[in-house]
Amino acid sequence: MSNSSNQQDKGERSPKMPQFNMNWIYLIIIITLGVLFFTDGGQTIGKNVSRSVSYDNFKTYVDKGYAQRVVVNKSDSKLRMYVNSANIRDVFHQNKEQTGPDPCVEVTYGSIDKVEQFLDAEREAGKFRGELSYEADTQSGLMNLLMTFAPIVFFVFLWLFVMKRFSGGGGMGGVFNVGRSKARMYEKDNAIGVTFKDVAGQVGAKQEVQEIVDFLKNPKRYTDLGGKIPKGALLVGPPGTGKTLLAKAVAGEAGVPFFSMSGSDFVEMFVGVGASRVRDTFRQAKEKSPAILFIDEIDAIGRARSHNPGLGGNDERENTLNALLTEMDGFGTNSGVIILAATNRVDMLDKALLRAGRFDRQIHVDLPDLPERKEIFQVHLRPIKVDETLDIDLLARQTPGFSGADIANVCNEAALIAARHNSSKVTKQDFLDAVDRIVGGLEKKTKVMTADEKRAIALHEAGHATISWFCQYANPLVKVTIVPRGRALGAAWYMPEERQLTTKEQLLDEMCSLLGGRAAEELFTGHISTGAMNDLERTTKMAHSMIAYYGMSEALPNICYYDNNEYGFQKPYSNQTAQVIDQEVIKMTNAQYERAKAILTEHKEGHNALAEMLIRREVIFAEDVEKIFGKRPWVSRSQEIIESNTPATENNTPEEDNNTADNGEA
Hints:
By secondary structure, the protein is of the alpha/beta class. The chain contains 26 helices and 15 strands. Helix 15 crosses helix 17, helix 19 crosses helix 21 and helix 22 crosses helix 23. The longest helix has 29 residues. The two termini are about 80 Å apart.
């Protein structure tokens, strides 16, 4: 034990050796070349002094007999005249110890013939007794060598760098693997830890995907009867409903290899890479069959091909889609490979992708209903320390229209709120505050408002509350607030009914309730403000849908002009019909606006009392409205839930009306 510890201590105390790096070799080569370049290839004597002089001075020095020898370099038109030791002081004005034993002067000449003639004449005159020699230009030769091989070296290093980047640092062969599949494979021993127990709700969708798992586990039971294993299943539904989670549960339950990738993994900047990856993915899946191949967000490559390539056609994406179509239709009848795909934009997919034989089934994963929301809450509440009195059924009723992802966000936000308040457990109030926070935004109690603005907001929100109280099919009111939250300066909160069908009367009552805020402003302040922009937007869209899509207009009864053609550049109706639709929208909206003003005029005293209460308390609840107007004439199931949970309604916020007195956008 002691020996090992001593060895460990020695290892920790020993200096760390620098790791080998090719950059050091590159640096040494560059320094060596630089030394050779700037020192004439190592030919210059280190301590000898040299000085540049003019050609006339050179002739003078030779004529005086100072020249010991002359070395001519023809390539750069320069020569060096080495000085006799006896004449060093005459030329350099220094002694031999300072200049070195063999100093010289450098001269630039014009013609080598003239230099030779001059030196011959001086030799005949006895003034030059040295030798004339010629030398090769070492520096110029080195430069020629560099100029010859430098481009080759540069492109070699560039090629190595590009290949290394393409391979992700994986070596030389990576550039040739750019067309390889990016699918991640999960085998039985590498499960991702999600099973059908972790998927709450979606009973029908789970049943269908569970059947796919049974196909793969026991295919003989189906093929013996002559059945064919489906080739593909498409999970369709809004965002956050659990399509990818269902695919993960299939991977955890199947016990077969599960290949997972996104549609964007096929998309690449290089031509042909997408199709190559499609082929490689299916090849790997066939080698591991029986197996499941899951493609998330398949609309990235499966979008409908354009009929006019000149208008936004993408050849690479379409080639990738063609490869996918070919691979899916090229399977054997019982090859044991099933394709799962998920998208929330099924209307944009190519029709050839959706035909039988490719995606044989479309599994709809819709927003959860009340029982399913309760199951989802139970799943997400497992890791949270909740209060024992928490009513999960109430939470499920307070969150209509929430997806599974929204409910998970509610649970997480509630835990954060409880931790912010230093609570030991997450209570019902924390969950209700979390719903407020997610639906309406963060409270902004510090926002500065004048007394007139606050009164206008109170009258506006009281108008919504009054109209909804006296309209039979309007959603039951939960609370009204003039506390700014998010972008809204006030809001009326309702608990909407979960309906499978909506009648014309229900839509008209909702429109009337939305217009109650603007009507209250006009009646009781004498002017209108920009705060009703969101109400008017929703009302206009609702009226247009009733007339153009639902056939609920007197002028255009039983007519639907809905067209989901993505590439349609024309409206499915004429200009005259468009004019009729506009007129009907205005007529229907104005009728409900006059109806709202009539209801407010009839209940003027109660509306004013409601507005004054809002100014004092900033938040009022359904029981406060009931004290002013009396019991609501029409009691729905949602109203019974609100009344049976009176203490809990102080922050009931299942759905925000987003009615604002001034949202600052207009």
